[in-house]
What does this fold into?
Amino acid sequence: QVQLVESGGGLVQAGGSLRLSCAASGRTFSVYAVGWFRQAPGKEREFVSVIRSSSGSTDYADSLKGRFTISRDSAKNMVYLQMDSLKPEDTAVYYCAAQMRFGREYNYWGQGTQVTVSS
It folds into this structure.
């Protein structure tokens, strides 16, 4: 079992920044990758970014490259999502999730943190 807790969401004006945090606990040594996803009202959940545990390699949704940065602190079992130049369309609930094996679904999810960007 892996437990994930997100924090850092809030209300920010367009053009501002937020840093989301994802605290992992439990069998974190077995986690292959941690991803960030988001879901806006009335829309499907979408992929934001991922960081892989062993290599530290990252991927981003094409539309978010250059504005969002994923990072980690392995010693603290933390994964971060730095979000810059925020736009109203970034408003969503942001979730972190753990993938236990390459190519498999994300098995564990946090409860989400709300990000609201005002225009």
Remarks:
- The longest strand covers residues 18-26.
- The chain has a mean pLDDT of 96.
- The CA atoms of residues 9 and 97 lie 16 Å apart.
